[in-house]
Structures are given as C-alpha cells and as structure tokens.
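Hi F.,

I've been meaning to write this up properly since the lab meeting, where we talked about keeping a consistent format for the predictions we share between groups. The idea is simple: the sequence comes first, exactly as it goes in, then the structure tokens exactly as they come out, then a line or two of notes. No screenshots and no reformatting. I'm using this chain as the first example so we have something concrete to point to.
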Amino acid sequence: MFKNLIITCFLGLTAIILGAFGAHALKEILSVEQLNSFETAVRYQMYHVIVLLIVNLFDGFTTKQKNTISILFFIAILLFSGSIYLIQLTQITAKLIWFITPLGGLFFIIGWLLMIVIFAKKMNKN
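Output, unedited:
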C-alpha cells in the first residue's frame, strides 16, 4: 500500500511542477490550443492522484483491489497525460503516437468501471 502512496505522491508532485511550468514557462512558447491540451493532461493527472489517495486510504478496498485500481490509473496517467506532454514538449507529432492518448483514456475508464463493480458487489452483500 505504501508503494502505491509513494508513487501517487510523486505523480501529485509532478502534476504541480508541470502545471506551474505550463502556466509560466510555456505560456510564451505554446499556442493557446497546445497550452489547453497540456493543461488537460495536468488536470487529468491531478484528478486521478486525488482518487488514488482516496482509494489507497479507503478501508473498503482489499489490498489486491487497491493495487489493481492503482496500476490501472498509473498506466492511464503515463499513457494519457504522458503522451500529451510528449506531443506538446517535443518534436513528436500526434500522428506518430495518436493511439497512446486514447489507450490511456481506456485505462482510466477500466479503473472507474472496476470501482463501480466493486461497490456494486459490496452493495449487493448488504
């Protein structure tokens, strides 16, 4: 569990750093559209950091469930936000890695669906 929390805190730290970098250093470099895309990546990363903190501190999930949800969201952040960062900060074009961002989105969706299934099963037991 602590490994998940350490990774989550690292992802939160990088979201803050990247958000500040985007707001200050990239304002003059990126177009408005590129900056909006970059901010979307930061926002999705931070949203899921908050969810990961809740998931890993919530007693209603088993350790296995916490680990599975965490892995899904870690992969999702890496693929979704990471691909957007790459596209906006490097010479890599979206045409080269177009499939990575939606794949990350799919991992977010699977993580949320897994939580729905877990909660529905718990609801049916009560």
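Notes:
The CA atoms of residues 22 and 70 lie 26 Å apart.
The radius of gyration is 16 Å.

If this format works for you, I'll send the rest the same way.

G.
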